[in-house]
Specification:
binds magnesium ion; 664 residues; 38% helix; 5-stranded mixed sheet; single chain; 22 strands
């Protein structure tokens, strides 16, 4: 008896923190969202050691006075909702009033805030008085007459920052000090040593690189979502003035180095280019629809830019990043028949609809919502994307070489920048001299597309290719390719139908496993390195997975700003395009890298490699290629199933046929 006790508030906060604060990236998300809700136009995120050491977020939003600052870190305190009616039309990113209390219960927090006054922070009389007093002290009255002089401006800043901010410090739930201090308009919150009193949770933090990848992802979501962020006081997004619909000025710094600097006046397209790459941004199709109370604007990838995971599907509802199975389904349906079933298109989708038409209070991190009319949302998105996809010329376009802009003498880098200049110049050169397509690359490479006699090379004539329907070899091994996808082979007691892609996938998979076990994969140098752009987070993934990438026989070299090039590529995968392959590999490592064991991950990588480098369905094969495939089949273990478990061949016996034709 008497065993059940009410938990103290700090324990309650720590338990709540378990739901809201999973890792440093969650802190970044919650604090950036608070800054946006505070009407900030500029937010700077500075992180040390992947956020494990410190996370500091500065905004120029509305700020808090001393009373609010102390109150903000108490549990269940919010300025964003007051009644249950407010709860049914949430227009702000936050509303649960638990983030600051949760963060402060599991880390050392220091917050400095200074509220803006009604005129936007310019308490002119007070300020002038302060400045005047100061000038008196310093005997510089005459200079004050020149109101715009830099001296006066500096003094204005000094007086502003000296008196009106407040500061509070909290160490894992216990407030250690509070009081006035200097600080600019807005709020700075610094979070140090997350989970330092909770070793069990601290242990789950990953390397600085991995944590930084998560932080960057949250930053990207907010950078894109806030692009359409609307005025939180508007009853519906439609009421927000167009002027409030622009990007915020956002900066992300890691260990003193600027990772992203996004200017407020850039277009969404420019922002996507900055956050991802120009390669990705250039292949986006734009669309817009506004029907039945749902405004949709989207930028989405051409089918040939599809990826192996859904990571590049960014869906925002009134500026909030969400994951929703109805919307994912609508996107998949829109691309039906245009991409393979297991691929995911790149999509940036911005949905705006009245706040009252959905519920955000479903998930602690608010990543899921409940639509009151999910079918309508589904059909509007599907219709909008599908219509645009079907009316767009989706043929891949040949890339025109980029015209080099001659550098003027003035902006030519000097000294240590010289090597950078040479790297840039090489990148430009190779970009211009890139092979036009894959065929040209296989011609210049030293190996043939598939190990077989010379008839299989690129010189194979159309006539030779047509010959495949002719039986080859002795009568009892008649073979033919049908629909450019299946091989029909006569065997002693009937015939088998082989799925050429599935079989080749298994052959390659077994060969890859065998070679990898012995050593690293044998690679060949590409005469023309295949270059591609990468984000900072993707470069981190490469760094983290170096040993695996090297074992695969892939050699990557930096090739200019944010650009890498594949310099050597495994011979076994020569049917795959090197840069495309590496891009998919990075996606896979990103997606599964932390959740799988090293061995499982390797298996996934090899499966993907086999799939990408295997002969495709729809590819015409000549006699020699078919023979080679069947020969390899004999020497391959588990050749009856592809690495994903699908059958590679189906057998029909003569007795089956006889039964079907009622001969027996
Ligand atoms: P919520 O965002 O759900 O209201 P939080 O715990 O995140 O809850 O924040 C509590 C309150 O502190 C907010 O409602 C807001 O009034 C205030 N606040 C938090 N961060 C800021 C900020 N950067 N600028 C101004 N006010 C802030
Ligand atoms: Mg909040």
């Amino acid at each position: 008896m008497g065993q059940i006790k009410v938990l103290d508030q700090n324990m309650i906060n720590m338990i709540a923190a378990g739901e809201v604060i999973e890792r440093p990236a969650s802190v970044v998300k919650e604090l950036m969202e608070n800054s946006i809700d505070a009407g900030a136009a500029k937010i700077t995120v500075a992180v040390e050691d992947g956020g494990r050491k410190s996370i500091s977020i500065t905004d120029d939003g509305c700020g808090m006075d001393a009373e609010d600052l102390a109150q903000a870190f108490e549990a269940h305190t919010t300025s964003k909702i007051k009644t249950s009616i407010d709860l049914s039309r949430i227009s702000t990113l936050g509303f649960r009033g638990e983030a600051l209390a949760s963060i402060a219960s599991v880390a050392q927090v220091k917050a400095v805030s200074r509220p803006r006054t009604e005129d936007g922070g310019q308490k002119t009389e007070d300020r002038d008085k302060n400045v005047s007093d100061m000038l008196k002290d310093e005997g510089r009255r005459t200079q004050y007459a020149i109101r715009n002089s830099s001296f006066a401006a500096a003094l204005l800043r000094r007086t502003d920052t000296q008196y009106e901010a407040n500061c509070i410090e909290i160490d894992c739930g216990s407030k250690s000090s509070a009081g006035p201090c200097s600080g600019d308009y807005g709020t700075t919150i610094q979070v140090r040593d997350l989970f330092y009193k909770l070793p069990a949770r601290r242990k789950f933090l990953r390397t600085a690189n991995t944590e930084m990848t998560h932080i960057t992802e949250q930053f990207i979501r907010i950078a894109l979502g806030s692009y359409f962020a609307v005025n939180p006081t508007a009853a519906s997004p439609a009421d927000a003035p167009a002027s409030s619909r622009k990007g915020l000025d956002l900066t992300l710094i890691h260990n003193g180095r600027e990772i992203h600097r996004l200017l407020a006046n850039q277009t969404l397209h420019q922002r996507i280019t900055e956050l991802f790459s120009s390669e990705l941004a250039e292949k986006l199709i734009e669309t817009e629809a506004n029907e039945r109370g749902i405004h949709i604007s989207g930028l989405f990838g051409r089918p040939d830019t599809s990826r192996t995971s859904g990571k590049f599907q960014y869906v925002f509802l009134n500026g909030r990043f969400i994951r929703d199975k109805f919307i994912s389904h609508a996107i998949k349906e829109a691309y039906r028949g245009l991409i393979e079933q297991n691929r995911f298109p790149i999509v940036f989708l911005f949905i705006e609809m009245p706040y009252k038409d959905y519920d955000v209070n479903v998930h602690p991190t608010k990543i899921e919502v409940r639509f009151y009319n999910a079918n309508l949302v589904h059909s509007q998105i599907l219709g909008c994307l599908r219509e645009k996809l079907l009316s767009t010329d989706l043929q891949p376009h040949a890339q025109l070489p980029i015209v080099a802009v001659p550098r003027t003498h003035r902006d030519r880098p000097t000294g240590t920048h010289r090597s950078q200049e040479i790297t840039d110049a090489m990148a430009e050169f190779f970009k211009k001299h890139r092979p036009a397509d894959r065929q040209e690359l296989s011609q210049v490479s030293t190996i043939k597309p598939y190990k077989a006699p010379s008839v299989m090379s690129a010189q194979t004539t159309a006539q030779q290719r047509r010959d495949t329907t002719v039986a080859i070899g002795p009568v009892e091994t008649k073979i033919m390719q049908i629909h450019d996808s299946y091989i029909v082979q006569q065997i002693q007691d009937g015939f088998i139908i082989i799925d050429q892609h599935a079989l080749h996938e298994r052959i390659l998979y077994e060969a890859l496993c065998r070679r990898m076990k012995q050593n690293k994969l044998e690679s060949q140098w590409l005469l023309i390195p295949d270059s591609f752009e990468l984000t900072e987070a993707q470069q981190n993934i490469i760094d983290t997975n170096r040993p695996l990438i090297e074992k695969l026989g892939i050699e990557l070299v930096p090739f200019g700003p944010k650009t890498y090039a594949v310099q050597a590529f495994p011979i076994l995968l020569s049917r795959a395009t090197p840069a495309d392959f590496v891009r998919d590999l990075i996606d896979l490592l990103d997606d599964k890298g932390t959740e799988l064991s090293a061995e499982e991950l390797l298996e996934e990588v090899l499966k993907m490699a086999a799939c990408k480098a295997a002969i495709k369905a729809g590819q015409k094969l000549n006699n020699a290629e078919i023979e080679q495939l069947l020969e390899d089949k004999k020497h391959t273990e588990r050749s009856s199933q592809c690495p994903h478990g699908r059958p590679t061949a189906i057998k029909f016996t003569l007795s089956d046929l006889e039964k079907q034709f009622k001969r027996t």
